[in-house]
Specification:
It contains nine helices and 16 strands. It is of the alpha+beta class.
């Protein structure tokens, strides 16, 4: 299929149909049509213009875990094509590069936070197993590793000491990062057993999600939870229960961290994102993840609608509809 032949619509570019259902329901509630561009096959005629409409990129850094490793390259090609013709693209090419590289995320956030009270975790990018072991000596234990191209807790491991890391790296359970880059990162002990995920749509704050980590989990998204367990026993991934997620009413659009991150999103032309942070024992806020293909917890969203409020998925539809005119 040539994407040139598609009719004008609101389009979602993605490679994982499992993540589309909540948005499909939101479009149906609003009585608004949309189409999918599934970036696992197809193509573009570069001599012809794209269809008209609004295009939302929901490309994921974890696509290779679903045997869709090339979807990132397909996405780069399609976004370049759309942007060259001036189409309305939400979370375009530059945003995709942040999505698929935690190195770029941390560099961008570090630059943004350099004169503020917020920060990112100390992080070293290691390019080989030997480097990973060697560089870890500069970290006080405990510490963690994660993949540069990650998501869903991909490659996230917790180490009590340096010998654990060495044993893991030299074991058959070692997980090779898809791009060869593994991040060493300081472990942040949270003041309480939760992390916070700020949801933004159209660059505006929607809500703050409290994600319970009392079961030992660290990197949680509203769609699933990946537990960090002793690395030599392997890291298990399980679906997070709805009870893990709730709204933090104490964080509003006027909160300092929200205002700060709104400025960051505006600077980098990120319209839709979920940004995660931890509050340490000294009440410092450490931002550690930007997800530009953010998912929303169905139970939380349903409770909002039951109370006469819009969920984030409904906000996405409203925002895209406004752009379409």
């Amino acid at each position: 299929m040539l994407y040139n032949d598609l009719k004008e619509d609101i389009f979602i570019l993605h490679e994982n149909p499992e993540w589309i259902e909540p948005f499909a329901k939101a479009f149906a509630r609003a009585g608004v049509s949309f189409s999918e561009i599934l970036l696992t096959s197809g193509g573009i005629d570069l001599s012809k213009e794209p269809p008209k409409g609004v295009f939302l990129s929901r490309l994921s850094a974890s696509s290779h875990t679903r045997d869709h490793a090339h979807s990132k390259e397909y996405g780069r090609a399609v976004l370049a094509w759309l942007e060259s013709y001036g189409r309305v693209v939400v979370n375009g090419s530059k945003v995709l590069e942040l999505e698929v590289s935690k190195v770029k995320q941390y560099l961008a956030l570090s630059e943004h936070f350099k004169n503020s009270e917020f920060r990112v975790p100390k992080t070293i990018a290691a390019f080989s197993k030997e480097d990973l072991i060697s560089f870890s000596s500069s970290f006080k234990a405990p510490f963690i590793t994660k993949h540069n191209q990650g998501g869903k807790g991909l490659g996230v491991k917790y180490f009590e000491n340096h010998s654990e890391l060495k044993s893991y790296v030299n074991s058959s359970s070692y997980e090779e990062p898809v791009d060869g880059i593994t991040l060493l990162q300081e472990y942040i002990a949270s003041k309480e057993a939760f992390i916070t995920r700020l949801e933004f749509v159209g660059g505006e704050f929607v809500y703050a999600l409290r994600v319970d980590t009392s079961a030992g989990s660290f990197e949680l998204c509203p769609a699933d939870a990946c537990q960090i367990k002793p690395v030599l026993a392997g890291a298990a991934c399980e679906v997070g229960s709805a009870s893990k997620f709730s709204i933090r009413e104490d964080i509003t659009k006027d909160s300092k961290i929200v205002k700060n991150l709104r400025e960051f999103l505006e600077k980098h032309k990120i319209k839709i994102a979920g940004i995660e942070f931890i509050e340490d024992k000294n009440n410092n806020i450490i931002v550690y993840d930007i997800n530009t293909n953010t998912n929303y917890n169905n139970t939380v969203e349903e409770k909002l609608r039951a109370n006469g409020k819009q969920g984030a998925s409904d906000k996405v539809v409203e925002f895209l509809s406004t752009l379409r005119g």
